[in-house]
Amino acid sequence: MIIQEIIAIAGKPGLFRILITNRSNLVVESMVDQKRLSIPGTSRISSLADITMYTTAEDVLLMDVLNRINEHVGKGEIPQIKGDAQATKTFIDEVVPEMDHERVYNSDLKKLIQWFAILRENKAFPLTNEVTEEAETESNSKADEKAEVKETKPKAKKAAVKKAGTKKPAAKKPTAKKPSAKKTVAKKAPVKK
């Protein structure tokens, strides 16, 4: 499943899959009970693709952590660690040994296990980042096309200048004459010598 389609909504339990987006709201489907909801654009939502976990080295994407848990558990059952903070911590340390427990709280680990269970029930694994890969491919091809256009345009201008050889005189702009109400003829005064 593509991770950009999965979100968490503040104040609502579980995870949601985005069905339709528009300017003012989102239509989502709960991954817990498959009910559809319309979420206003003012709600606080978090895409799972944007969430990272603190580690002692660089932060790790949540997608990578969830995929690691899936590989670790395999086809077996999820360990029953609900309510046991130490068991949760031990399980996560088996999967992500570099987890920074000073910045990742037990409530975060509990939520991580809950989200993993929901995703596994919905057969979402392996989680992929395909939207970004497709967008990168498209942006790279568009950038290549723009580079080709930029390279050909200056060459065309230089060729046109070489063919012309000399500068062309600037064309005179026609001036608009204002109609006058009366035509007056000025008489010249005789010149005395």
Fold blueprint:
Blueprint: E1 6-9, E2 16-21, E3 25-30, E4 36-40, E5 45-47, E6 52-53, E7 60-61, H1 62-73, H2 85-95, H3 106-121, H4 130-164
Antiparallel strand pairs: 1-2, 1-5, 2-3, 3-4, 6-7
Which key phrases capture this entry?
193 residues; alpha+beta; Arc Repressor Mutant, subunit A; two-stranded antiparallel sheet; 4 helices; 38% helix; elongated
Write the element-wise H/E pattern from the N-terminal end onward.
Answer: EEEEEEEHHHH
Estimate what percentage of residues fall within beta strands: 5-15%
Q: Structural class from helices and strands?
A: alpha+beta
Q: Are there runs of 5+ residues with pLDDT below 50, and where?
A: 156-165
Q: How many helices in DSSP terms?
A: 4
What is the global morphology? elongated
Q: Reading side by side through the largest sheet, how are the strands ordered?
A: 4-3-2-1-5
Q: CATH top level of the domain at 3-121?
A: Mainly Alpha
Average pLDDT score: 76
* CATH architecture assignment of the domain at 3-121: Orthogonal Bundle
Give the % helix: 25-40%
Q: What is the CA-CA span between the terminal residues?
A: 106 Å
Biggest sheet, open or closed, and with what strands and sense?
5 strands, antiparallel
**CATH T-level topology of the domain at 3-121:** Arc Repressor Mutant, subunit A
Radius of gyration: 35 Å
Number of strands: 7
